[in-house]
Amino acid sequence: MSLRDYYVANYSKCDVKYNFLASWKGVAYPSHLIQVIACPFQILTFYIIIQKTPKNMKSVAWPLFLNHFLCAMLDVALCTLSTAYIFLPISGIFGVGLLSWLGVPSIVQLIFGVIIAISAVCSYVYLFESRSSSLLQNRFRISRKSTRIIYHRIIFFYNCAILLVFFKTPSDQEAAKLEALTIYPCPTREFFEFPVLIVLSDQKTAQFVTYIFIPSMFLQTALNILFHVFCTVYYLYIAPSKSVSTETQKNQKSFLVGIFFQTCIPLVNIAAPIVILSVAHSLGFYSQEMMNLSAVFVGLHGLVESIAIVTVHHHYRKSVKRMFLNKFCKQHRSTVFVGTNDRGSNSLWSRGAI
């Protein structure tokens, strides 16, 4: 049986409730709109980091800039370049973004997206490691550049091992799709109308990736971040240096709290839909509307991350307030000046002076 035969003979019997949210438009249009809204905030955040970073934060200015750049790139990939329509139960995916419109194969887009996502995750480790290593009293600080490069490369390449999964992608996609339909017999009609890529047809490999390897990636990343957080907290709160001024320590504590919330807020934005989907799938419930809504919600990551940076850091928050207040005051003074000129001209005209 071919896919066409299945669609004619079997799919017509499926009772699939089709609506906008379940369609490809329910992923593409909201995601593109999110990118349009997020772009000004991302540009503002770049400007704030480059121009408004105080001297006491210069040691982490580059890690903060790199983290924001990679998060913005992830947002562009998710919402514009490689917006994905995902069939979760069968590891099926196709793109509805700009690269798909240009004819870039789905497998290339998927590899590109995974590398960007891994880089963004690793940038958080780099951010916390830089904060920890900037404390001279920290016995575990990484002081040598070569050691830092080796350390972060190990983390990056361990996470990149997930790319080996793509060597298991079925070469016969027609047969893989028919096999996937035995697991999920009634997908939305996009499954038959678009060039869907079945990433994994081997259920054992899919279970290994889903339940063992991906959790191990998140675990090792979380443990690295927690280690650097522990070192920073210990040497700032429990055993602070006596040679560092109180004002400097206060700034260091404030920045630590800032990057903690800067990390947690976008993390919750990504983790919440993943947890909900996992629980629903384990209970035997799945809907394409839920999948598409989760993809859109994850696409908010860049907007949330940008807003978090300029609001949780005290100095950045003050800089943004000052920028908008100055702009408002200039416009107000200009309006008052023009209004005064108008009234003055009118009065002179009325007196016959002009």
UniProtKB/TrEMBL annotation:
This is Serpentine Receptor, class H. InterPro entries: 7TM_GPCR_serpentine_rcpt_Srh. Keywords: Membrane, Receptor, Transmembrane, Transmembrane helix. It comes from Caenorhabditis elegans. The chain crosses the membrane at residues 32-50, 62-87, 107-128, 149-167, 217-238, 259-281, 293-313.
